[in-house]
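Quick one:
INPUT:
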């Protein structure tokens, strides 16, 4: 009886995972690998696709859809994260405030990216990537954040750079 329960729990967990993550077909996995190898964090790039693609053989447009949607969602989360850090920030407010400014620019551009995608204006998405890169450049990470050994904005900036690289690479594929 006990064994049976353990098996049942194991099976349910397996089922939940297989529903949540669409296993990509060989050709798609190959394109994903090519795209992600051109970014500075292959693992993060792969996770974005693995967690959000809902079919095993997505089109290039589906890949772009996931990318613009996640870019907007993650950068909005980052902006919220900075605002929570600012609440507890002491002497180092100015560094975080710069990052808040930076992520306002990043968010605006990524939000516009979703809007362009929905209008089928894929080429326009490429023009926004410069805004994102400029924005990230404003968020320096040479300050301490209370409670963190490593400035957490280093990881956030890296994720943003991966997302903007993904938009650039897939945006080119879709619009050419
Ligand atoms: C993409 O995947 C992440 C991680 O599983 C999840 O939190 C997020 O809600 C997904 N995005 C969408 C738009 O469903
Ligand atoms: C983009 O993805 C969303 C789900 O995340 C879906 O509702 C929408 O129809 C997709 N848009 C296109 C143009 O494929
Ligand atoms: C992108 O940057 C340009 C030049 O700074 C600015 O005029 C434009 O409003 C920005 N667009 C978005 C969507 O942030």
């Amino acid at each position: 009886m006990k064994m049976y329960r353990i098996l049942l729990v194991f099976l349910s967990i397996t089922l939940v995972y297989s529903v949540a993550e669409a296993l990509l077909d060989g050709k798609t996995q190959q394109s994903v690998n090519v795209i992600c190898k051109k970014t500075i964090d292959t693992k993060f790039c792969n996770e974005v696709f693995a967690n959000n693609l809902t079919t095993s053989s997505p089109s290039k447009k589906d890949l772009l859809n996931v990318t613009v949607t996640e870019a907007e969602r993650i950068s909005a989360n980052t902006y919220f994260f900075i605002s929570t850090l600012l609440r507890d920030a002491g002497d180092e407010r100015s560094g975080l405030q710069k990052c808040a400014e930076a992520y306002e620019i990043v968010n605006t551009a990524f939000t516009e990216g979703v809007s362009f995608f929905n209008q089928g204006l894929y080429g326009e998405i490429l023009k926004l990537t410069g805004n994102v890169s400029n924005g990230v450049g404003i968020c320096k990470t040479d300050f301490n954040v209370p409670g963190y050994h490593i400035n957490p904005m280093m990881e956030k900036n890296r994720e943003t750079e991966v997302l903007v690289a993904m938009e650039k690479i897939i945006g080119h594929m879709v619009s050419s």
